[in-house]
């Protein structure tokens, strides 16, 4: 199936907003075996939208359109589609009902301009929007099917999964064309991962592919046979055997989510002391609800005074060994754990750059420490990359320390 994406909005062409929708659509479609053949972006000009729609439907089976479904005068997608395909615009009573229902749920008055979002090309099939006001719709024109979705990324993604994917499966005879398993690997290079997996004989019809989502290596197991689930189970077991405890998450799960689950399941509590990562570890752990079950506190102790006041790091360590040292990291982890009364304390201190490095401690020098009643340890690393990459690597490594500690003491 040839699939194209058309994103609409002046703000995308001006650089005011990044076009994240095309990337997200591609990533949502890929596990099901659908790939994009083409992606276009046009501004809020009716003629440009019409021209793009006509051109794409002439050469693609499916066109996924995002943007321009709002209530303001520059939201022209529905009108452009109607004119491009010679269809009148008409008010959809069901769309209007859904829009009004959305405002009722929010407990706010609906502005009369929102009525415009119920104007759809005649014959359009409505697609509900569970997260916003603008309903989506689909159209068939000649041999092509077009799906029109809002430009708001969260709304678009939800509707693509709930409405567009089932429609694509129906075109394929009612079944997804391919199933996929993702294994996320941390601590091994992509060539090393491939080398380890090459020693395994995967089941017939299970294809292996690789990707990188820094700093993770993504292992993709794919199968398009009716018995795909069983074959992928076997393939995943073999891949895990080859990669061992370097597999840190599966599917859409993140490393932080894996750590959170292990902390909750083991009844463990955690306190975090961060310097160079600036709160990144705590942010990742609290990105999903439920962190209060395990995270007692997090401290961003950037200055030496904060390390002394909040974490009770001895001045002697700071003077003689420095804030970026194994001794300081361990004192930070121990200090935050004792202050919080938690089972675990984790600490990170380092030089993320681009300035601040020395010959003895160059940019990328990071020390991580873990403190528990039954174990205290610290280790230094030399991470390479820019500031963002160094901070990301440091935060991932700290989370992986917690995961490995719990893996040994509380295997799931």
Verbal overview:
This protein is α/β, with parallel strands linked by helices and 412 residues long. It has three domains: 3-171, Molybdenum Cofactor Biosythetic Enzyme, Chain A (3-Layer(aba) Sandwich); 188-250, no CATH class; 255-409, Maf protein, CATH 3.90.950. 40% of the residues lie in helices and 24% in strands. It is built from 14 helices and 17 strands. It has helices at residues 10-14, 20-29, 46-59, 77-84, 93-106, 153-171, 190-198, 228-243, 255-266, 280-285, 304-311, 315-320, 326-340, 387-409, and strands at residues 3-8, 36-42, 62-66, 89-91, 119-121, 125-127, 136-141, 144-149, 179-185, 207-213, 216-223, 247-250, 270-274, 295-300, 344-350, 365-372, 375-382. The protein has a six-stranded mixed sheet with strand order 2-1-3-8-7-6, sandwiched between helices. α10 (280-285) links the parallel β13 and β14 (295-300). α2 packs parallel to α6, α3 (46-59) crosses α4 (77-84) and α9 packs parallel to α14. The longest helix is centred in the last third of the chain and has 23 residues, at 387-409.
């Amino acid at each position: 199936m040839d699939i194209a994406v058309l994103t609409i909005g002046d703000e995308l062409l001006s650089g005011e907003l990044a076009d994240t929708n095309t990337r997200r659509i591609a990533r949502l479609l890929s596990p099901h075996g659908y790939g994009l053949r083409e992606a276009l972006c046009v501004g809020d000009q009716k003629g440009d939208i019409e021209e793009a729609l006509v051109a794409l439907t002439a050469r693609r089976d499916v066109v996924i359109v995002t943007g321009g479904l709002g209530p303001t005068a520059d939201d022209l997608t529905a009108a452009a589609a109607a004119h491009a395909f010679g269809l009148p615009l008409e008010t959809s009573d069901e769309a209007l009902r859904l829009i009004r229902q959305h405002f009722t749920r929010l407990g706010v008055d609906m502005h009369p301009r929102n009525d415009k979002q119920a104007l759809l090309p005649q014959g359009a099939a409505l697609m509900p929007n569970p997260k916003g006001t603008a309903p989506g719709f689909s159209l068939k024109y000649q041999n092509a099917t077009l799906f029109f979705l809002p430009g708001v990324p969260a709304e678009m993604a939800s509707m693509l999964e709930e409405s567009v994917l089932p429609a694509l499966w129906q075109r394929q005879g009612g079944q997804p064309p391919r199933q996929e398993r993702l294994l996320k690997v941390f601590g091994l290079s992509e060539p090393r991962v491939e080398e380890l997996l090459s020693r395994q004989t995967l089941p017939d019809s299970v294809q292996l592919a690789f990707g990188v989502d820094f700093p993770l290596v993504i292992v993709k197991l794919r199968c398009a046979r009716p018995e795909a689930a069983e074959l992928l189970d076997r393939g995943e077991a073999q891949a895990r055997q080859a990669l061992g405890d370097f597999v840190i998450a599966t599917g859409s799960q993140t490393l932080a989510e894996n750590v959170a689950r292990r902390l909750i399941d083991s009844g463990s509590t955690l306190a975090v002391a961060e310097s160079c990562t600036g709160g990144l570890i705590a942010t990742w752990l609290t990105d999903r609800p439920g962190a209060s079950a395990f995270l007692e506190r997090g401290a961003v102790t950037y200055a030496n005074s904060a390390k002394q006041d909040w974490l009770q790091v001895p001045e002697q360590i700071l003077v003689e060994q420095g804030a970026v040292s194994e001794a300081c990291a361990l004192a930070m982890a121990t200090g935050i754990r004792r202050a919080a009364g938690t089972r675990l304390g984790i600490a990170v201190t380092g030089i993320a750059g681009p300035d601040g490095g020395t010959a003895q401690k160059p940019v990328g020098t990071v020390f991580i420490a873990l403190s528990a009643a039954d174990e205290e340890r610290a280790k230094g690393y030399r991470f390479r990359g820019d500031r963002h990459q160094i901070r990301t690597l440091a935060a991932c490594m700290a989370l992986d320390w917690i995961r490995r500690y719990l893996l040994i003491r509380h295997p799931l």
